[in-house]
Design brief:
There is one protein chain. The protein is an alpha/beta fold. It has eleven helices and seven strands. The chain has helices at about 10-20, 55-60, 85-90, 105-110, 125-130, 140-170, 180-185, 195-200, 210-225, 230-245, 250-260, and strands spanning about 5-10, 30-35, 45-50, 70-75, 95-105, 115-120, 135-140. It starts with a strand and ends with a helix. About 40% of the residues are buried.
Length: about 260
């Protein structure tokens, strides 16, 4: 029997997922739908690549019984408050629900080099299909997998802001290549290969937009109430700054903020 897969979400990640699952996989039928479309029943499983948790819940609430198949694999980056409701909505249309996200952009997905986070563990067929996108890390439940994705993005966002600040401050101190100093230390990923350093050197902007950063920071603030007040205030400031950046690369906003352009 040929597995039929519905991919819901026509953005960069959704298109990349559909292309990767279609390419080179014999005996898999993949259909791509926009979020406002209601797929007809017939899928064996569905992959959601939507904007946020609210859109996930709207899509699942509007779906007909059986239209998402027996399993929903949610790759949407979302806050934790609605994950349980999404699982209940999926159950109401006869589907199990796994959620988490992907680490890496659309190019990594298309090349099968992404890192996939899912919880709880999908079924064998679903797990094999997700493995086409890259290694799959399984968590105990959907909330844990979604939290891991948010925390990854928090580290990504703050790391690039810190690098942006170093890049802006270094020239005033007479340093032309602060990246080489940072690369020699223990700051984690080599800063010279970071998205913000690439943008700073006119090597090409990130595909992660300020609007998406603002959305993810809001999800982080909503999902982790134990954040120390000072850190929460910093994140709110960053969230407001990126919210004004719209669809521009978030690295540009990071560099502007680090340059004092408030």
């Amino acid at each position: 029997m040929t597995p039929r897969v519905h991919v819901l979400g026509g953005g960069r990640i959704g298109r990349a997922v559909a292309a990767r699952l279609s390419g080179g996989v014999i005996g898999v039928e993949v259909s791509l739908f926009e979020p406002w479309q209601t797929p007809a029943p017939g899928a064996d499983l569905s992959v959601l690549c939507l904007h946020d948790g609210a859109q996930v819940r709207r899509v699942l609430a509007a779906a007909r019984h059986g239209s998402c198949g027996h399993e929903v694999l949610d790759l949407t980056t979302q806050d934790l408050r609605g994950v349980g409701e999404a699982a209940r909505l999926a159950a109401a249309i006869g589907a199990g629900y796994c959620a988490g996200g992907v680490l890496g952009g659309a190019a990594a997905v298309r090349d099968g080099q992404a890192q996939v986070l899912q919880g709880p563990s999908p079924g064998a067929t679903a797990l094999a299909l997700l493995g086409r996108l890259g290694p799959v890390r399984v968590f105990e439940d959907a909330a844990a997998a979604c939290a891991a994705k948010l925390l990854h993005n928090l580290a990504l966002i703050l790391n690039n802001h810190a690098i942006a600040l170093c890049l802006r401050l270094a020239p005033a101190a007479g340093i032309a290549d602060i990246e080489t100093v940072l690369d020699a230390g223990t700051a984690g990923r080599a800063p010279g290969r970071s998205s913000v350093a690439r943008d700073f050197r006119a090597g090409g902007p990130s595909s992660y937009t300020s609007a998406l950063v603002a959305k993810d920071l809001l999800a982080i603030l909503d999902s982790f109430p134990a954040l120390p007040p000072a850190d929460a205030a910093t994140l709110r400031r960053l969230q407001a700054w990126h919210a004004a950046g719209g669809d521009a690369p978030y690295t540009r906003a990071a560099l502007d903020l680090a340059g004092g352009r408030e």
